[in-house]
Amino acid sequence: MENAFKLLLSCPSGLSPSQVSVNFDESYDRVPHPDIDLENSISEIWDQRVQQSTSLFNGKKFRYGGHSGVEPHVCLHLGLTDYRTFVGSNLNPLWERFLHPSEDDCKQCQHTSSPLGNGAIVETSDNKILVLQRSNNVGEFPGYLVFPGGHPEPEEVGITSHKCQKGLQNSELSNSKVSQEMFDSIVREVVEEIGVPAATLSEPLFIGISRRVLNVRPAAFFFIKCNLESTEVQQVYSSAQDSYESTKLYTIQQSELEKMASKMPGCHRGGFALYKLMLGAGK
Fold first, then answer.
1. Do the beta carbons of residue 204 and residue 15 sit within 8 Å?
2. Could you read off the pLDDT of 54-81 as tens digits, one per residue?
3. Which of 176, 173, 226 is nearest to 202 (CA)?
4. pLDDT per residue as tens digits for the range 80-137
5. Distance CA 110, CA 30 (A)
6. 266 and 1 in contact (C-beta within 8 Å)?
7. Which side of the chain, N or C, has fewer Cβ within a 10 Å radius?
């Protein structure tokens, strides 16, 4: 698929936590679709999925609602959604019917759950990039190649609804916590999926947001240096906490990844494009 992704935000200089802020507000939540039958299909699809897999559970997610600002400081606009609505809208076989006709990306996706995923381009001390092959246990793209990642989690910072955020002081505190969770969560994902100790990883640099064209799925990408060599990373991978999500770890040169990128979901291909833009900027 030639147009597999769209870059929603590119930060090739790589932004540190102090350069990325968050505006977490219910105005960035999903707008219900006016077609009642289509809207009701969200619950129907979720109920079918739960019957097929009893291990499914519905968790809160941050919803991508756009951004403002340009380098060297950007502000992410985030609302709240959940996994159930993601399965029933973005992953709905009729997902294209949820799209609103608009050139504006956020308006086009206003009826979709659009939870913000994350991914990390991790470079080892011998300049290899870490890529995982997804297992057949996962809900999306089983068997595909991906960068380590997952989601920032609202419940990690005590957010279960917008109600716990009343008042200016609480709002500012929530924004600060959510912003930090963007960076903390990607380190957690790398540690859990690869098995490397957090102490071996550099502070993540935010390099942008990619959205795959297929079911308009957005993901934030980060660049991280690991001070272990690729052979050492392979050794610790065998005991990774979340190894059930993947079956193999590749440690490869950028030139090799160019050839393998077609086996990645669109949002991760976009992540690779963001990494190349960062390299081009001489980071």
1. no
2. 778 899 999 999 999 988 999 999 999 9
3. 226
4. 999 999 999 999 999 999 999 999 999 999 999 999 999 999 999 999 999 999 887 7
5. 6
6. yes
7. N
What is the secondary structure of 241-276 as a DSSP string? TTGGGEEEEEEE-HHHHHHHGGGS-HHHHHHHHHHH
Q: How far apart are CA 270 and CA 162, in angstroms?
A: 31
**In 3D, which of 234, 226, 221, 225 has the Cα closest to residue 265?**
221
Residue tagged 């997952």 (tokens): 150
Which residue in 175, 181, 157 sits closest to 75, CA to CA? 175
Q: Could you tell me the two tokens for 225?
A: 């240096």
Q: Residue 145: enclosing H or E segment and its boundaries?
A: strand 145-146
Q: What is the CA radius of gyration of the chain?
A: 18
| AA letter at 206 | F
Query: Residue for token digits 């995982």?
Result: 132
Burial-class residue 164 by CB neighbours within 10 Å (0-12, 13-18, 19+). Answer: exposed
- Rounded to an integer, what distance in angstroms lies between the CA atom of residue 279 and that of residue 201? 19
Question: Could you tell me if residue 156 is left (phi over 0), alpha (psi between -120 and 50 degrees) or otherwise beta?
Answer: alpha
Contacts 24+ apart (CB under 8 A), 172-177: 174/24, 175/21, 175/22, 175/23, 175/24, 176/22
Which is nearest to 131 in space by CA: 227, 35, 263, 4? 263
Sort 201 into a burial class: Cβ within 10 Å, 0-12 / 13-18 / 19+.
buried
* CA–CA distance, 220 with 209 (Å, rounded to integer): 4
Strands of 74-82's sheet in order across: 20-24, 74-82, 60-68
